[in-house]
Design goal:
The chain is of the alpha/beta class. The protein is about 30% helix and about 25% strand. A hairpin with a 2-residue loop joins strand 4 and strand 5 (about 60-70).
Length: about 250
Amino acid sequence: MSHIARLFVESPLRPEQPVDLGADQSRYLTRVMRLQPGSKVRAFNGQDGEWECELQGTPKSAVLNPLRQTRVQGTGTDLTLLFAPIKKARTDFIIEKATELGVSAIHPVLTEYTQTSRVRVDRFRSLAIEAAEQTERMDVPEIFEAVPLAKALSVWTDQRPLIYCDESAEAAPLAVHTSSLAQKPTSILIGPEGGFSPRERQMLRALDFVIPITLGPRILRAETAVVSALTLWQSLLGDWHNSPYLPVSE
């Protein structure tokens, strides 16, 4: 069914409960995808699984009629990404790839060397929705407003380890910590270009829930570090061994 257009919707998905689409989604299905009334569309909302729907309505005001559930919701990963925003296009890349790699929540944090403090959560959410639609995710990560790093850490819970990717000091690779991190909700912290300041490094190293790791001998760009760290986590501790398609039991 992967060739059928796939759409994230905010409404509940229930039999015989039509879903009214906004102008943008109506235009996408009828003008971009060139679908006609009666065409099949896959829809998901992060709660009710994935549904096969029938397209109805007009090009300006389309409607999806849910026909049958084709995939159960399942349980995603409990992995949070904290990152310092960088230049616009590269921050967009981070949001897109974090979504593709299964992150459940995204927290922009402002550090001493952060290049920009301008964060548009609405834009980030649009990018995340598009990435989820294209990569067969069954949900969309929650995206938060940017806050200073110290504030984010001040309300942290000791029950959630924070993997701190430290490019400037001695640290073990992530594989060393797999046994202590297994089955735990986890977060990954990536710094800005230029890295963390000495004061921030000292603060992070002093926190019991922080686990410093190395991403290798090279200094990576921020967006490369995000992809590298998430890939390592998924390979060692994540859901890559699960089936991407969980059909409804007959």
